[in-house]
Design brief:
Elements (H helix, E strand, L loop, with lengths): L1 H26 L4 H23 L7 H27 L2 H6 L4 H13 L5 H18 L4 H27 L5 H22 L5 H4 L3 H29 L1 H7 L3 H12 L8 H28 L1
Length: about 300
Amino acid sequence: MQARYKYHVLMHFIIFLWGFTGILGKLIDLEAVFIVWYRVLIAALFLAAYFLVKKKSFRLGKKHLWKVTLVGLVVVAHWLTFYYAIQLSTASLGILCLSTATLHVTWLEPLVMKRKFSWTEFLMGGLVIYGIYFVSGDFTPKEYTALYIGLISALCAATFAVFNAKLAQDIPSAQITFYELSIGFVVLSMFLLFTGQFSYDQLALSGSDFYWLLFLGIICTSFAFLVTIDIVKRLGAFTVSLSINLEPIYTILLAIVILNEHELLNKNFYIGAAVIIVVVLANGMLKHLQDNKNN
């Protein structure tokens, strides 16, 4: 039981770290595709060093390679749409729609993990969407475009979360992360090369961008991915996905402090935040009761 609480605390620390990723989409002066390219490059290099230091094997069976490749492409698609949505609107608005990933997990997990569909989880996911309605407030036409792109990002996030949980049953989490990021780097590099965007001018970095990208690639990606895959195995994809709905709250609070997005703090924000927090706490208590009943 104590170990389970430890994983809940660790999960929320990772979610708080992820709260920075939306902020970095505004702080880093690069287009979304280059932010993601640097992110996967730095993260993959860090993980390669981790493998060498820990003397872990890079070997991955052929029967798993194509699955990891597909999930790696989904991860890249999630990040590209995520940062593009942020750059179209604000860090706060761009991350709000990620909470809809919870709804997708409710139908994806029964299909992939072969578990029974839960109407309780589906209802909780719906309540999260209701909370996001209050947090977001009124949208402009440009923000609606960002929302649609963000919804695609949320679907991608739910997809790779569930499939990573499935893959983690047979493959060490470090290997999953390394190969997904490496595949993402190769695919993005080929895209930039064939579209004529692979040039020094496009990839040039300022000093601040360099350090922000290191933080994004190492702390918010490599470290967070390694830990999250293990957390999903312990707590389940739905619990993790539902708790990740606190990420918009963290991001908005950080955006107020760092980006001065004070106008987002209104009564609707508090209503939406309260709904999300109550749903997350209720899910945790239900899981706790279920565990006690099973034991």
